[in-house]
């Protein structure tokens, strides 16, 4: 296994990696091909992950979690994604986008109500932000929540929602006013009247991580379901986006490691012109480039995760970490296909799946174009302040 460089992440991260790797190798990896072929989500594995504590890594021990940080969370999602990136995506949507947001913004009653089932894996979590016409421009969302006696009535739809078909608890953002100051976060339960799952979305990659539309038709929710301040949803959303980007970048690390796990043994065994192809310098160069792409992304992602834990993260570095990891993962997965030649272009080998899976995070959690815009804008803004 080409993962021997010691990043000195600490004992907790090393223990999480070892435990997650064993579980992922034994329980997740054997399911990966079926998940992709059948677009099948292995719901039964969720409680098993709960037993390991994977769903509540960043949740305080007093609330039933492990009380660890984003660095350990990145390591866990990396090892899950090494076995199956699609399960890694569902895991990230559950444990970070849903569980971690409730940890950060839920009141005591909401935490007591929702966190136990989500942390144990009895329940599946999701987050609903995007709509058909509100992706990168999220504040243009149309889902409305109108105030009424004792609560709110929601009408509209959400789209591209990971885990939606299986979710028991969803963090949903809706318009409660005008502009960016008129968005509120709500906690929605799957059985609420007026709430339904719409069409399931058939994706190019990350198959087995279920994605669907949400439909709200006069869905009443009580005031107790409001998470965070009314009309303060953009603050809730944006404050979580940095952590989301840091954690989801771990998926791409797992994909790159999976590519090396396949390619290195293959080039040692595959023979052409009477020699193992790994003896040819062009193949050695590919392996070197793949390894450097992985470890350079690891260094940035781990550093940003540590900064998150220290309360020092910057928005542009969170964007930069997932930008580097995602673009590197796409390149590495394509090189993995090339290294295997014709075999790599078939479904007999998993590298074509790695490429399809890797492409998602060039788009999800903010497109690479948006990430570049954010980084450039923030850095220019900092320079302008210095100049003043």
Question: Which labels suit this protein?
Answer:
alpha+beta, Butyryl-CoA Dehydrogenase, subunit A, domain 2, Butyryl-CoA Dehydrogenase, subunit A, domain 3, four-stranded mixed beta sheet, four-stranded antiparallel beta sheet, 10 strands, 52% helix, 15% strand
Secondary structure blueprint with pairings:
Elements: H1 11-28, H2 32-38, H3 45-51, H4 70-83, H5 85-105, H6 108-120, E1 125-128, E2 144-148, E3 151-162, E4 169-175, E5 183-189, E6 195-200, E7 211-222, E8 226-227, H7 233-269, E9 271-272, E10 275-276, H8 281-310, H9 315-340, H10 351-359, H11 368-387
Parallel strand pairs: 1-4
Antiparallel strand pairs: 2-3, 3-7, 4-5, 5-8, 6-7, 9-10
Structure description:
It contains 11 helices and 10 strands. The radius of gyration is 21 Å and the shape is globular. A 4-stranded mixed beta sheet has the order 1-4-5-8. A 4-stranded antiparallel beta sheet has the order 2-3-7-6, with helices on one face. The protein has a two-stranded antiparallel sheet with strand order 9-10. The protein has 388 residues and is α+β, with helices and mostly antiparallel strands. The chain has helices at residues 11-28, 32-38, 45-51, 70-83, 85-105, 108-120, 233-269, 281-310, 315-340, 351-359, 368-387; strands at residues 125-128, 144-148, 151-162, 169-175, 183-189, 195-200, 211-222, 226-227, 271-272, 275-276. Residues 127-219 form the Acyl-CoA oxidase/dehydrogenase middle domain. Residues 231-379 form the Acyl-CoA dehydrogenase/oxidase C-terminal domain.
